[in-house]
Amino acid sequence: MFFQQRASADASLSYLFGCAGHGLAVAVDVVAGDETWFADEAKKTGSVLTHVIDTHIHADHLSGGRRLAEMTNARYCLHASAAAAVGFAFEPLRHGQVIEIGNVTIEVRHTPGHTPEAICLEVTDRRRGDDPWFVLTGDTLLVGAVGRPDLLGQEREMAGALFDSLHRELLGLPDSIEIFPGHQAGSACGVGLSGKPNSTIGFEKRWNPSLAIGDRAAFIDAVTRDMPPRPADMERIVAANTGMLR
Fold first, then answer.
1. For the whole model, what pTM was predicted?
2. Pick from 64, 68, 59: nearest CA to 116
3. I want to staple 12 with a disulfide (CB 3.0 to 4.6 A). Which of 8, 111, 118, 232 is the partner?
């Protein structure tokens, strides 16, 4: 398995990984302007991009996912529930779906909270073993923080959904599993993010202040208190990422 993490100037984190033996690759949360880098890096591994996945509709930066998919004839993917929000066709992903990329498997976990269509991607390298190796957590679970639930309104309802997603889909995973989030410190998509670009489930359970709150109502109060300003130009960015920009 090969794996690359790419950091952008706005503190977003994107990913390229796949199976070198079968020459297949996946790109996740590509930032606009980085499309050629991803296409070139996949070629360097001798791999073809089969899937380009956005873990959610981004509100803080323009996505390069659709353009990269067009450049490489890959499938552009979002969770199926995004169909109600976007104005273009995509390959819908569903909770529990498994994508096979040679010796690498990706299980889709629907984790609404930051946004309704948010997903995490649990990745296993079968040459390494049958147990999951890491999870790409998007903006659901960040290092030292969780994704903010207020960007699209209904923040208390979304905060409750985030609590449920974290406890149902992530916190029951083995402590040793690595997490790779969609942002690091400097992003407006969470509060109190670490500058460290990855962590483990166990470390976050031990030190992430939001995960220390086991009561759902208290969690909702905590993560909706003192929200920072929304990302600059958010409405235009969301309109572009949903295909609704005129």
1. 0.96
2. 59
3. 8
Task: Please tell me what DSSP assigns to residue 166.
Answer: I
Q: How many whole angstroms from its chain centre is CA 53?
A: 9
Domains in the chain, CATH or no CATH each: 2-241 (3.60.15.10)
Report pLDDT for 189.
65
Length of the chain, in residues: 246
Is 155 buried (19+), middle (13-18) or exposed (0-12) by CB count in 10 A?
middle
130-149 residue pLDDT tens: 999 999 999 999 999 999 99
Query: Within the chain, where are the H helices?
Result: 35-44, 65-72, 155-165, 201-207, 216-223, 234-241
Calpha distance 196→205 (Å, rounded): 16
pLDDT reported for residue 102: 97
